[in-house]
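Minutes, project huddle
Topic: does the predicted pose make sense with zinc ion bound?
PN asked that the exact inputs be recorded in the minutes so nobody has to dig through chat later. Recorded below.
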Amino acid sequence: MLFATLLACHFALAAIVVYGMNQLALVPWRRARDAHWTARARLLWPIRKTNGLLFFILPAALAAAQYSQFPEIPLAYLPAALAGLAGVILGMWPTAKAVFPDLALGRWVRNLAAVFVIRLMTVGVLIAAIFLMPGHLGWTALGLTALVIAINLGLVWGGALWILRLMGVFISAPPRLQEIVREIAARMNLPMPRVGLLRLYGANAIAFPLLNTLAVTEMAMDVLPDDELGAVCAHEFGHLSEPRGTVAMLVLSTFTLLPVIYFKPAMDAFGWAGYFGICALLIVVSRLVRTFRRRMEQRADSAAKTHEGPSPGVYARALERLYELNQVPAVTPATLSHPSLYDRLIAAGVTPEYPRPAAPARFTWQNVVALGLVVAFITPVMNRWDRDGRRNSHPPRMGSVESQPTRAD
Ligand SMILES: [Zn+2]
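Predicted holo structure (tokens), as shared on screen:
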């Protein structure tokens, strides 16, 4: 009974927090109804970024509270996380509908389900490994590390696409797309890759260099005329024809977050210094990865420009159309793997008619809330590890019940 009430609280709290934050954040965007699309996209950016974080942080923080405060209910943090996630999704729907009025609930839920499953297999596996990792390095730690690496490699080597296919999100390409890709392959003198259609929300294209596969979303197919779709595919061909060394680096870059699984042993061995050491390592590695990916994008963009076809500016038009439809600002923070649209347009030979917009606000109140939630996730978990660790390292006196060590679940 207590547990059911707790779950209901997790669900309601998550829904209220997300809904409230979203509605507040949407106020300036609603006021700018008649502004240029780049100005509106710029206002929307912070909340979209925060929602991406909330999707994981909020359920994780609720699960952490459950883990720390109610250790007597084993594994209770899992249903707590699920209840939180359901609340987050409910809280986000009104915003999604306000921003993309054509959005159908079915498509949105399928999109979320696909994103969730892939994230569960990546971020979720890492979070689970943080909890399951023993305090001391040994065979268990080694086995767990091997398992996390194996799952990630499996995803990269076709597992992710297999899951998307199973969920009906990745389907075979319609004849129009096959035809366009065949034409670009001939134009660029490259072999014909496997081609698929992604039934995800947003207009996008993606390349899987390891699998020689190119995929385009339904919405990109709907909004782009043939020549622009071809230019976007030429960008993806740029990724498919990366040298082996670059592809190897790309695989390696999917392990950027791996060190987080050693939080517990690092805390045990070095205290908070171990924790901050891992954080510093993550920052350095993710900066290197970002530089590497940016260079990849720039190369693919120049391939698209070179092979965009007879009429100049086709690739630039396609890019701008995609960004506007997806409501991604023309100038994005330097932390992203893609350069800003404004710079990509200039590199593609087209200077936009509007002046270069400012980047979205770097620091907003949403960041403060998200940071608070990260602390709300880490602190209770660390507290319980600390408690459990202290109990384990000071054996209880004979016959004393209250100081029996409580096993971590
Ligand atoms: Zn790209």
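Observations noted during the meeting:
- Residues 136-326 form one domain.
- The radius of gyration is 24 Å.
No decisions taken; revisit at the next huddle.
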